[in-house]
């Protein structure tokens, strides 16, 4: 590195150094020795070899679930760049997800600096729709279930105050409102939240968990699970359930919907 920087100064040509952790052996634990210390590698190159931050970039993989942690550590200790891929797609366990580092940047700097994070949702939708890439449903920020709950107690909290059980304003930042999947544990609160969310009802038209429609739907849902059902209800199933209980109510919900 010292010789490369000497050559760079003599030639006037910037030489970028990529710190490759292809097998994800790097760790950020205090006191870790080289060559495994992420901060040690970055600090050594930056301070001892005098490599400018703008010429240091980190390249990591996710074999030990450390790709985001190690990339963030590299940033904090002086690397200006992190190699990323959309949705973390890469060899073996993948590379650092671009969407993850965008979130890390916003968390560290306290600003999105003009980034439109709804593009993260659009990217995931595009990959699934056009490329037939399956995004694992529980993947942070992009999986279809990342901000979805099935537990009735969580749904009840969402009804009272979304901040209780939603990690941030996912509707505003990612265009991904909090969701509830209706199953045997959803309870009245889960069904009420699903109706309000599915129909995008304004506050003055939102249903409560004591609404007769909600009570009737829960009775039907419970009956199916008592008969052996073990899967969650889909949106179309729940719409049909409402129609079978009170067809007029369907018209009212659609009339008040903000979708």
UniProtKB/TrEMBL annotation:
Entry keyword set: Manganese
GO annotation terms (biological process): L-leucine biosynthetic process
Keyword Secreted included in the entry's annotation: no
Classification via InterPro entries: 2-IPM_HCS-like (IPR050073), Aldolase_TIM (IPR013785), PYR_CT (IPR000891)
Protein species of origin: Candidatus Gallimonas gallistercoris
GO molecular function (one): 2-isopropylmalate synthase activity
Keyword Manganese recorded: yes
Gene3D superfamilies assigned: Aldolase class I
Record-given protein name: 2-isopropylmalate synthase
Domain of life where this protein originates: Bacteria
Domain Pyruvate carboxyltransferase: 1-121
Annotated Pfam families: HMGL-like
């Amino acid at each position: 590195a010292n010789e490369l920087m000497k050559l760079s100064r003599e030639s006037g040509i910037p030489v970028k150094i990529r710190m490759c952790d292809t097998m994800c052996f790097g760790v950020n634990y205090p006191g870790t020795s080289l060559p495994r210390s992420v901060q040690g590698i970055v600090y050594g190159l930056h301070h001892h070899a005098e490599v400018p931050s703008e010429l240091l970039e980190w390249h990591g993989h996710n074999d030990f679930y450390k790709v985001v942690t190690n990339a963030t550590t590299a940033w904090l200790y002086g690397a200006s760049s992190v190699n990323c891929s959309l949705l973390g797609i890469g060899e073996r366990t993948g590379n650092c997800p671009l969407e993850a580092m965008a979130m890390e940047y916003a968390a560290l700097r306290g600003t999105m600096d003009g980034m439109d994070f709804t593009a993260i949702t659009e990217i995931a939708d595009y990959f699934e729709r056009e490329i037939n890439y399956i995004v694992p449903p529980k993947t942070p920020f992009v999986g279809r279930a990342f901000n979805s709950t099935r537990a009735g107690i969580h749904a009840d909290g969402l009804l009272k105050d979304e901040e209780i059980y939603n990690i941030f304003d996912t509707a505003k930042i990612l265009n991904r409102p909090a969701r509830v999947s209706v199953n045997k544990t959803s309870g009245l609160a889960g069904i009420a939240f699903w109706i309000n969310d599915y129909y995008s009802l304004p506050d003055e038209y939102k249903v409560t968990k004591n609404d007769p429609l909600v009570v009737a739907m829960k009775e039907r849902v419970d009956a199916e699970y008592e008969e052996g059902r073990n899967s969650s209800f889909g949106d179309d199933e729940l719409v049909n359930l409402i129609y079978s209980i009170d067809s007029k109510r369907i018209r009212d919900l659609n009339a008040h919907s903000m979708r």
